[in-house]
Amino acid sequence: MLSLWGIAMEETMGKNLTNSIIDRQNILNNVIAVKSMEKQLNLHGTNWKNTMWFTKEYVARLYEVDIRTIENQVSKNLEEITNNGYKVLNSAELDEFKKFAPEMHFGRKIRNLGLFSFKAVLNMAMLLRNSEKAKCIRTQMLDIVLNVLTEKTGGHRLYINQRDPSFLDASYENYRSRKAFTQALNESVDMGIYKYEYFTNEIYKAIFLENAKRYQKILRLKSRSNLRDTMYSEVLTNIAAVESGIAYDINQKAKELGRKLKKEEVDVLIHNLTQHPSMKIYIEQARSKMASRDLCFRDAYHAELQDYISSVDPEDFEKFLGEKSKSLNQQIQDHIDIFKRLKDK
Questions:
Q1: What HEC string does the chain produce?
Q2: Domain span holding position 141
Q3: Do 100 and 190 belong to one domain?
Q4: pLDDT tens digit string along 197-239?
Q5: Are 105 and 199 found together in one domain?
Q6: How many structural domains does the chain have?
Q7: Whether residue 186 is found in the same domain as residue 221
Q8: Which of 102, 124, 153 is where one domain is finished?
Q9: Does the predicted TM-score (pTM) go above 0.70?
Q10: Roughly how many angstroms between the first and final C-alpha of the chain, as a whole number?
């Protein structure tokens, strides 16, 4: 599967975005980058009902292809392109549009009219394999996407997760659950010092099917990096829930048996908790968030989670790159009074 960043390299070798619907949708869902593309491309359509619309004739001229080529791509990719703003006018809506844009000289016998939104026009650029103009626009689109991400993250896209306004809260709750988990291991599990690393890895594998070393390698982290500093708030919350639950189960089981637990007994507790239907729903959501976002934002491909990969929602682009997103330092400064009060306690 091509990642967003891999595409840029592939473009230079003559390939293009026609290969992956996920990569196409990741660009089109990037509302910040799409706004920038709209300004830079400066296409002139018809502004109807507060949306800029383009006819198939316009799109054919733009990409220097025959109208039949546009119609063929629409037919083959109708669901995708419709989801990105393509629509067909007929009946009363068509009559309304014809009155709004009489200069377009519609034929009398026309019964329906296909219109492209700006996103649908961009979508078409990623579907046309043999248009040089479409290829040029694809390259321009990729440049804009890269520039937006670099500008917003200061070039540190590895920690884009920390721009989520909920990251601080999730990180704090994760810290609290971690303390409870390690305390339970310390007091109620009969193993050597390696038990902390072992059971942490078991929880990682249960949640996102990778141990710490594998996760570290995929994200190309330095050996001493704190893995949880790179995790999305949903993943941190999931880890916190599992570690809190396991800590409780360990303490309860140890009290019941009147002794410390063995490794195999804790393994069973982790398996039972993470396989419970109420917990699996949240675990699968965390897998999808991590795998999809990492592919899009970090060029990190989690092979064990490939079945969970989908395009990133527009809301996520707003969360990590939009006007309300902030660096971790900015968030800390905004909440400095709260941190001081917590410290005083």
A1: CCCHHHHHHHHHCCCCHHHCHHHHHHHHCCHHHHHHHHHHHCCCCEEECCEEEEEHHHHHHHHCCCHHHHHHHHHHCHHHHHHCCCEEEEHHHHHHHHHHCHHHCCCCCCCEEEEECHHHHHHHHCCCCCCHHHHHHHHHHHHHHHHHHHHHHCCCHHHHHHHCCCHHHHHHHHHHHHHHHHHHHHHHECCCCCHHHHHHHHHHHHHHCCCHHHHHHHCCCCCCCCHHHHCCHHHHHHHHHHHHHHHHHHHHHHHHHCCCECHHHHHHHHHHHHCCHHHHHHHHHHHHHHHHHHHHHHCCCCHHHHHHCCCCCHHHHHHHHCCCCCCHHHHHHHCHHHHHHHHHC
A2: 4-153
A3: no
A4: 999 999 999 999 999 999 999 999 988 889 999 999 999 999 9
A5: no
A6: 2
A7: yes
A8: 153
A9: yes
A10: 51
Q: Are residues 122 and 194 in the same domain?
A: no
